[in-house]
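User: I'll paste a sequence; please echo it back and then give the predicted structure.

Assistant: Echoing your sequence first, then the prediction.
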Amino acid sequence: MQAATTPGPEPVSEPAPADRLAAVARGVEVAPEIHDSLLAERPVLEVDRFNLWYGTKQALHRISMPIPHAKVTALVGPSGCGKSTLLRSVNRLNDLVQSVRITGDMRLNGDSIYDPRMDVIDLRKRMGMVFQKPNPFPMSIYENVIYSLRIDGERNRGMLDEVCEISLRAAALWDEVKDRLHDSALGLSGGQQQRLCIARAIAAEPEVLLLDEPCSALDPIATGKIEDLIRELRGRYSVLMVTHNMQQASRTSDYTAFMYLGRLIEYGPTTDIFTKPVLRETEAYVTGRFG
């Protein structure tokens, strides 16, 4: 991956067109609608004029947005709009793609994520990542949860036991697994495995928790439990979540960002985005009239 470079001059934007999405499809630079209430929040993460290309194809266009501390922020938009690409850029998973090039920056609690001096391993320790499909390690439930502490050299059994219980309780899984902590995690149901992955992520006390469509592979009952968990994490953790499910975003998040063709279109409090968005294009998307 080519390193970040300083953004060039601000592109000249046209006045807000009658149909912003059609204008975006034509390649017109249209300024996003960012609600004022976001400016009052303390950001855990700042995305600053961030562009990303896969080879010659630009996937993200000059994204600038703050992610509030201790709140749940949802990224929504049609398939291929750049939601997961943006999420994966936060912990630099896109570094693994040879053809990726970026400009702009992201800052985690003031530290530049794309600074050449940033140690990517240390950066990823500061974040928790949960993917679409549960990916427990082929080891016991207990060892899954405390994995991050083990690799950091923690050997105090009392400390490990305490972190394991606290993390499983936080993930609403303790009561279901407390009597079989040393059984294989692979024996859990899909929904339990996903909650275990969340417990494993929060055991490291991440500065931000990244969830990439965490319910897409789960049945409705398991999905409901994960949504309950996300609501419970609000206030204790800063969560950035990608979801294709509008109802899920409306039920679980404090803030929602609507993306389209790699661009941020509107970003504000979830209640406003779903009940009184500024843009009619946002209303059309969240009410299911397109996308």
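The first helix runs from residue 20 to 25. DSSP finds twelve helices and eleven strands in the chain.
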